[in-house]
Amino acid sequence: MYKNYEMVIGLEVHCELKTNTKIFCSCPTEFGAEPNTQCCPVCMGMPGTLPVLNNQVVEYAVKAGIATNCTIADFSKQDRKNYFYPDLPKAYQISQYDLPLCQNGWLDIETSEGSKRIGITRIHIEEDAGKLVHKEGVGTLLDCNRCGVPLIEIVSEPDIRSAEEAVAYLKKLRAILLYTGVSDCKMNEGSLRCDVNLSVRKKGETAFGTRTEMKNLNSFQYILKAIEFEFKRQVDLVDSGEWVEQETRRFDQSSGKTVSMRKKEDANDYRYFPDPDLAPIVVDKKVLELIRSQIPELPDQRKAVYMEKYGLTAHDSEMLTSDRKIADYFQAAAAKTEYPKLLANLMIAEVFRLMPQDSSEIPVASEHMAGIAQMLGDGTVNSSVGKKLVKDLWQNDCDPYAYVKEHQLEQINDAELLAKLADDVIAANPKSVDDYKKGKVAASKALMGQVMAKTAGKGNPVLIQELLEKKLSEL
Amino acid sequence: MAKIVELTVCELQKKLKSRELSSLEATQAYLESIDSSDKAVGAYLTVTSEQALEAAKAADKLLQSGENVSPLTGVPAGIKDNICTKGVKTTCASKMLENFVPPYDAHVMKKLNEQNFVSLGKLNMDEFAMGGTTENSYYQVTRNPRNLSYVPGGSSGGSAAAVAANEAAFTLGSDTGGSIRQPAAFCGVVGMKPTYGSVSRNGLIAFASSLDQIGPLTKDVRDSALIMDAIAGYDAGDSTSVKREYDSFSSCLEQGVKGMKIALPKEFFDKGIAEEVRNSVLAAAKTYESLGAQIVETSMESLSWALPAYYVISSAEASSNLSRFDGVRYGYRAAEYSTMEELYKNTRSEGFGKEVKRRIMLGSFALSSGYYDAYYKKALQVRTLIVRDFQRVFEECDCILTPVAPTAAYRLGEKVSNPLEMYMGDICTVPVNIAGLPALSLPCGETADGLPVGMQLIGAAFGEKTLYRAAYAFEQVQGAYHLHKTK
């Protein structure tokens, strides 16, 4: 039933900009300070105070716009979005309504289906709200540190058709924002947040179904789960002839389900109107050119280089370029080995696994990582030692060549020795040999493992495999 | 010799500089004046006697040493209660801000403090500056010092009454649709509404951000120019503040009006204007002619839409500006509520007065989805037309002469139950705010009942200098109403 339907997804991404000060006052924006230590009368919306726009916010937003192929408006304005909530001190959020700073952009993503272009409707600037902290026995407290932290909201076109595409889009967007240096994009600190608009329709239809909005999803894992759940929920409704209600839903992490937050009829009328305290934003042509000249090499440019120069696949190149620091690291290491492809595998299979979420710190020097790739390539060590080296150096970085010597981790290529070990294993495991003869291929793997174990994991796997196969067929 | 409190700022300043008089003596004289007459007038919401005496002593030290002496050093003044004063209650005459003490000074306060002026206290007003009689104050009624049965006008009624009653050497008010000019006219003093963007709004508790301006109320024209010299100027803390060279207003007074072209748009003299008022203003036009100015009769058709456009724009902005008064962080909070929504609802129902609630509802309606285009957007279009209409007049003329209000002061209570009639009283003043222009209100006559009548001089943007020249020339002929009444 589900395969007869497709999902239509548009994403709204809120991204905190990495400016030194807030959008309308000079308070610092650092994350994690003691509550209410980074606020002033302006960001707390005290009576009589006035906002003054931080130019760096415009500059960063324009940067993000250029990097996502948007048209930058030479004239845009800021509007008030009015609603009551205790974390919004002025009871209106200064945002942009009908004249956003950036419009009509796109970015390319890479999935198992190949590459695809996703449209970006608009990017606008706005201020973040504060945080309500619920304390048992005390009540609800207000932390104003986040009030007035600058945000950009990036709205995609409804071009996304799967959870995989949604995550690929977000990863690409994050990569671009990180490259341009406008945000640190830490989902766990809330500096990158995502709302998912999703509807379903029968494949082949062109009209959109009724959509729901899922708010504030803060990890790729949750986004995947929420999309998959919501798709099935909507298909179940539509397929049984029921309506999908237009509403805002929330993803419940413990149950993996999405639950209704508020219906459309309860939605606020935000009464948008131009903020009379702020002048229109005029981006001068010269300033625009200056900002354009400051845009660094972007992930797609590097991706093309990796594919061409190192012969990497599109998928692997995409993964390595998704973070500027990691890409820089890869490039530094690749310059010091004759085996960049092995290096890429090592990065994707081992380094990414060891790296905590939202981090791009690699505690192994790039030349050491290059050394591991080099030893893998020239046969000094086998692949399981290669893995072990990454793991060991991750704990205690050192020269991998010396380390291999010291711990005698060199690959054993001695055919005589390996043949003897193979004979021993075959002799000791008549059952496996029997299984193998009856056609159980897996049995040879078990034997292989045993031989490898006898070399303390250092045997040349290709050689062992060859020897085993030869000996078994001779039996 | 005139009593101390009868002196203009200029006269007082000379005596302070020559040490003929100390700021402490002047301040004490004003505090005594407040003590004796404010029970009847009710201009002040807060009198900061102790701070005033301290400030006076500090000013005297400067005056004695002769160092860092500015034109307003040691001069006692009153401040409208919607202008934030550090450490001194700023209530906007609302229950909502009954105990609100700002931890910061408004930009104009900083400017005045730089000159070491003496603040006597905070002045009554219509709640959140909404009204034309000061009867919308949550705290008290202010009476017109010229006749205590009459209102002082509003919303800067306290500011006008304090000057008229010699309870301050000068005061600051704010003007969104006439709130400086109309009370100045009702009380027979001089009120200036500067060009939008020339006096920082930083620290003025907003009513309608695109219309609000702070300005002085004074005993005569020269004082007005002097105060403007002190408070006008660019402020990076107000994005609507205009960066430019600001004229010295007090140095241009005596240039006269010879050859000046003064426009009389007929729409300002319609049948809605009381005959006594019309005649007084037309007589002023004759005076100008006799001084060598040329009177140009003209028409401004867009003015017929000014009042509805004003009430849509100002209420829309107010509905948003006043949203922050929600009982969460400061100000009044309802005693009883069980949900967040009730906290908002009860706080705002109990904390705001009737007129404020009326404007919030009006503004929220005008901005709501489905109505925005018909009301707010249309009002902005009217705004553009009015701006153009004024520009057209100023291509030909130097300033415009009109009445300030259709009538002189109302009796207390006369208009309270009829808001629409009250709104009509703003008809001559609101076009000026809509177009962001400067306008000066000064007395030009008196009704048969002995109430002052005001005339309004409207200038092109940043044309304050022209207005001061014209106003001063008239005052030289007619004499300053307030000084005449006092003596």
Short structural description:
The complex is a heterodimer of chains A (475) and B (487). Chain A is of the alpha+beta class.
Structure summary, number of beta strands of chain B: 11
* Order of strands in the sheet with most strands of chain A: 2-6-7-10-1-11-12-13-14
Supply the CATH superfamily name of the domain at 4-257 and 437-486 in chain B: Amidase signature (AS) domain
Bulk shape of chain A:
elongated
Descriptive notes:
- The complex is a heterodimer of chains A (475) and B (487).
- Chain A folds into three domains: 2-290, no CATH class; 299-406, no CATH class; 415-474, Arc Repressor Mutant, subunit A (Orthogonal Bundle), CATH 1.10.10.
- Chain A has a nine-stranded mixed β-sheet with strand order 2-6-7-10-1-11-12-13-14. Chain A has a three-stranded antiparallel β-sheet with strand order 5-4-15, with no helix packed on it.
- Chain A contains 15 helices and 16 strands.
- In chain A, helix 8 crosses helix 9 (366-377) and helix 12 (415-428) crosses helix 14 (442-454).
- Chain A has 475 residues and is α+β, with helices and mostly antiparallel strands.
- Chain A is elongated, with a radius of gyration of 28 Å.
- Chain B has 487 residues and is α/β, with parallel strands linked by helices.
- Chain B has a domain at 4-257 and 437-486: Alpha-Beta Complex (Amidase signature (AS) enzymes).
- Chain B is built from 16 helices and eleven strands.
- In chain B, helix 5 packs parallel to helix 6 and helix 7 (221-231) packs antiparallel against helix 15.
- The longest helix of chain B is centred in the last third of the chain and has 24 residues, at 373-396.
- Chain B is globular.
- In chain B, 61% of the residues are buried.
- The model of chain B has no long low-confidence stretch (mean pLDDT 96).
